[in-house]
Design brief:
Blueprint lengths: L9 H22 L1 H20 L3 H31 L5 H34 L2
Helix pairs in contact: 1-2, 2-3, 3-4
């Protein structure tokens, strides 16, 4: 397989990479129900972060926790797709890889919820 970036430099390389990233986001949105749900959650939470956060640090933490969740979900989907591409046979290592990815998503969800609850708690204490 040839490298699609070979010989590309500067703006051309950036534009091609951006296109591949956009294709990945479209594919994940179309193929992965969990990613779709998290995107809709992000569309609700990101604007809310500007109202809930009292300063730039809180806003960044709120938005960053949501973006981290999306990133981890994409990586989990990549692991699952790779494992499925290799084989659909049940194998302990394949199960482990998928379970690790699922655990990473669960931890990202817990982090996101913790950040949002802590900022909300802080906001309610100040009323």
């Amino acid at each position: 397989m040839t490298n699609p970036h070979k010989g590309r430099r500067g703006l051309d390389r950036i534009l091609k990479a951006t296109g591949y990233s956009a294709a990945g986001l479209r594919s994940a949105y179309g193929q992965e129900a969990a990613f779709r749900q998290e995107v809709w959650l992000a569309l609700l939470l990101v604007p809310l972060a500007f109202w809930l956060g009292r300063d730039a640090v809180e806003i960044a933490l709120l938005i960053g926790s949501v973006l981290l969740l999306l990133i981890v979900e994409l990586l989990n989907s990549a692991v699952e797709a790779t494992v499925d591409r290799i084989s659909f046979e049940l194998h302990d290592l394949a199960k482990r890889a998928k379970d690790y990815g699922s655990a990473a998503v669960a931890l990202a969800l817990m982090l996101c919820a913790t950040v949002w609850l802590a900022v909300l708690w802080n906001r309610l204490q100040g009323l």
